[in-house]
Amino acid sequence: MRILFESSDYTDVLVKKALLDQEGFLVHLDNFEAGSIMPHLALSQGYRIWVADDEFEQALALLSDKPVAVTQPVAEDQIDSCPKCGSENVARYRSPLWLPVFILLDFLIPGPQGNRRKCLSCGHIYKTSDPELTKPLVILFIMIAAVALFSVVVMLS
Smallest Cα–Cα separation from 8: which of 36, 37, 35, 27? Predict the structure, then answer.
């Protein structure tokens, strides 16, 4: 076995390991488990990718042939800019009617805040294309409250 690659960057080592695994090379990561249990070892010694001696040259050629792809940023994000005025001064919006329910839900089940936004520049309220996750949480909260109310009624009678 020979050391093919050595780095203290966890993600870089995992990407290179995935490339080698995808091509069928048997690899061993050194200090991989120690990074989560004792992070000071991973930072001081780094991570190492080991390959068999007879596959070393092929694996080295594979890593030098395939650069890591960098994704291009999206030109304009619909969530972070107002569709009416184009301002980036946007915040998540919650209806004041449901605010007590959502505050209680956040204590019980922390989760995403929904897909409604409000432009703080022009006051425009709009929905994004993100999935709406607040409706299922409200239904869950109502079901929990109904079961709790039913159990209190049964206990009192």
Answer: 35
Q: What is the pLDDT of residue 51?
A: 92
Question: What is the mean pLDDT for each group of 10 consecutive residues in the chain (157 residues)?
Answer: 84 88 87 64 72 90 67 52 84 70 68 72 80 64 88 88
Distance CA 40, CA 35 (A): 7
Q: Answer yes or no: are the C-beta atoms of 134 and 114 closer than 8 Å.
A: yes
**130 contacts 79 by C-beta, under 8 angstroms:** yes
What was the pLDDT predicted at 140? 77
CA 61 to chain centre: 32
Nearest-angstrom CA–CA distance, 96 and 103: 11
Give the pTM.
0.40
Residue 113 · residue 103 · CB < 8 Å: no
13: buried, middle or exposed (CB in 10 Å: 19+, 13-18, 0-12)?
A: buried
Instruction: Please give the single-letter amino acid code of residue 83.
Output: P
Question: Cβ neighbours of residue 152 under 8 Å, at least 6 residues apart?
Answer: none
